[in-house]
Amino acid sequence: MKITQYIKVITDNLVLNEDNLNKLDASIGDGDHGSNIVRGFQAILSQVSNFTNESLIEKDLMICAQQLMSKVGGSSGPILGTAFMALATVLKGKTKIVNEDLANALETAYTRMCQLGKSKIGEKTMLDALYPTIAALKTTPEILDFTKAAVAAKDGAEATIKMLATKGRASYLGERSIGHMDPGACSVAIIFSALAKINQMTPEENKNDSLKSEVHNQNETNKYSLLPITKNVSILMISHSLALAKAMWEFANEMKTADFAFAYVAGIEQGKSFGTNPYEIKETIQKLATDAEVLIIYDLGSSKMNAEMAINLIPEYATRIKIANCAFLEGIMIAVSSNNTNSAKELCEIVESQAKINK
Question: Quick one: angle between helices 127-138 and 147-159, nearest 10?
């Protein structure tokens, strides 16, 4: 199984459907789902020279996960990245894959996606297209063929048209979300449609030897270490907007009444696009938590999701970190003006008591 072949065809299929996905998202969301997911898979494609292809499938899938989490904005990035990480875990050691293997891996991916997004099927999300593919793959367990899975994913995506959205931005519309296909579910259907096309390609069409890429390694050596806590709590802002984070950082710095580290992680693609990058969050946490605990204040739900993903990547730091559920601007102002403690839990309680909000 040469993953580069699958990534190339998936990316091409997503590019062809980018405008349609954006239009679907414009009806019930931000209107950028197509552009976001295309950017993510194009980023994967740029890494194919790092792929081992048939020798270490789990490594290739981890590269996919890293690129999706760091390049796709909103909640789709961490959710899709989580799915690929689950696939990597379950398929570890495999050099030949059949439908039964994929079904087992997708079951794990589905479970982790539900946990991360706090969602389930029937809530008008990409899960509604993914879940039916598992049963479809199990009908032909001993081969590698995506034909039935593609049909199941398409049917699942179409079923979201009649659903009421209860998760994500679409849930804000209430009953007005009914009558629109979920763009995340549609993108899952497009991905499985692309996979099914590969089964029908000739060997000549299936060649991808000319693919080249720049080497980029996100798994760099950890240059930070945990030292005894000697400083006041570090404060980390996570925002979808680089411009907003910079403005907030400058404004809030004028409110500081003590000496502590105060940083932000914002935007993706060097701030050119909205979103958050869990790998940047991870490295910033490592830097801030070297000799202090860290309080994280975020703007949107997917920022929190990426923060949680970052913490999962460095579990040894988890006890030093608290995430505050609070109004973004008010929470930052309260945190920087009240920070005279080395306990993130204590500072979090102060912030939430004065600016708590359900996000």
Answer: 150
Q: In what order do the strands lie in the sheet with 321-324?
A: 262-266, 234-239, 294-298, 321-324
DSSP symbol at 164 = P
Q: For 72-83, write each residue's pLDDT tens digit.
A: 877 888 899 999
Parallel, antiparallel or unpaired: strands 262-266 and 234-239? parallel
pTM of the model: 0.72
Type of residue numbered 307: A
CB 240 within 8 A of CB 303: yes
Strands (DSSP E) found in the chain: 234-239, 262-266, 294-298, 321-324
Residue in 193, 210, 213 with CA at minimum distance from that of residue 10 = 193
- Tell me the pLDDT tens digit for each residue of 166-218: 887 788 888 999 999 999 999 999 999 999 988 776 444 444 433 333 333 44
Contact partners, residue 165, CB within 8 Å, separation at least 6:
28, 123, 124, 171, 173, 177, 182
Contacts of 276 (CB under 8 A, 6+ apart): 73, 238, 239, 240, 265, 266, 267, 268, 302, 303, 306, 307
- How large is the C-alpha radius of gyration of the chain? 21
Separation of alpha carbons 350 and 341, rounded Å:
11
3-class DSSP state of 229: coil
